[in-house]
Amino acid sequence: MNRKKYQKDIPIIAEEEAVYNARRDGKLLSFSVKPRLIDLFSGAGGMTLGFTKLTGHSFKPVWANDFNEYAVKTYNANFGEHCLVGDIVSILENQETRIPTADVVIGGPPCQGFSLLNKNREGDSRKELWRPFMEVVERSEADVFVMENVPQILGSYEFGEIKGYAEALGFKVRATKLCAADYGVPQVRWRAFIIGCRFADPQQVFPPKKTNFNPDNGYRKTFTEDYDIYISKAEKWRTVRDAISDLSPPQGTEIRNILPPLDLHFGRTPTSISLKRYMSIPEPGMNRFNLQKNAPELTPACWIRKKSGGTDLFGRLWWDKPSVTIRTEFFKPEKGRYLHPDQHRPITHREAARLQSFPDDFKFLGSKIEIAKQIGNAVPPLLAARIADCVYTLLVSKGANECRMSSAKKKEAGSCLEFQDVIQNLK
Question: Which pLDDT value is given to residue 410?
């Protein structure tokens, strides 16, 4: 395969903050520049959502893949019928598979040496799923890729392999961990992002400036952060109150065939002892230690024996803080701090989706369990949108630079005029 080569880095002609502001003002959707997007290990499409019109971006999804059939159904219901279900390695091995050209490939491959479902592939190096991800990057001829994963990956052997492999293909690679709450998501959720670019150093635009700050710390970074630059008019962290306080108490215990947000706003049927436990810790922020103090007779023996740690177990959310990380079993308070701040129940699917920054009109398909997996496994769309701001800045800079270096005739062509229009509006 012929690999694109760039002799030197191109200049970046806009600030990613300018792209953020233009997106928030709805301007990007009016431009004709629509970079082509592939999403791998897509899940329900949280990352794609951050790159598309529901967050004000204009990327055009052209191909996607996930192994979970219900996640694929959800993705296709929201973005069009181009997401394939199945094992990505088998799909790529199929000679009939055609990967479309794209400007950017995004996704979150498991990167800790996970084996594939096909047990006959012992010894096949592609059981490391970042390898098929990079194969799609090559086959699509994408100039940018974004890989998302748990923060621990940045100190792993796999990260060194990914970085070395990408650099051998001509990519410049940067990586960092980001907190979703710093980007408008009402949730403290840390994720690692690895971004590669063939034609420029991503560090010129990445990590994106923070749009929201922790009011307890102000604009001071905490010991867990190594990046602390904000947009000019940063706002306070969004809270649980901001996200879910307008919702009435849930009704029923099943998905309802009614308009959102109430379609996914259903409860559970707690046992009598569970309800007594909920009522024994009535205030926001309480947890299993308060339960042990207030009602030791209701406290499981294993919790009593565990003297430290697990402070989020059987905990209530705070109204005026972001939520803790939303995982796939958010409906089980014994799994974490998933009790409503003052109602005696765990949070609902709708509340969890909002805490992940999904808009109410996003369509989730599948059973209650499958939808919970889709919500908990997703990259928060508003966090993904800030990554998309960086990628858009890179790609627009590339297009504008190519036009600048082109002949006068090409400069008058449609695509060059489109890039010139974008640049003028980002100044």
Answer: 56
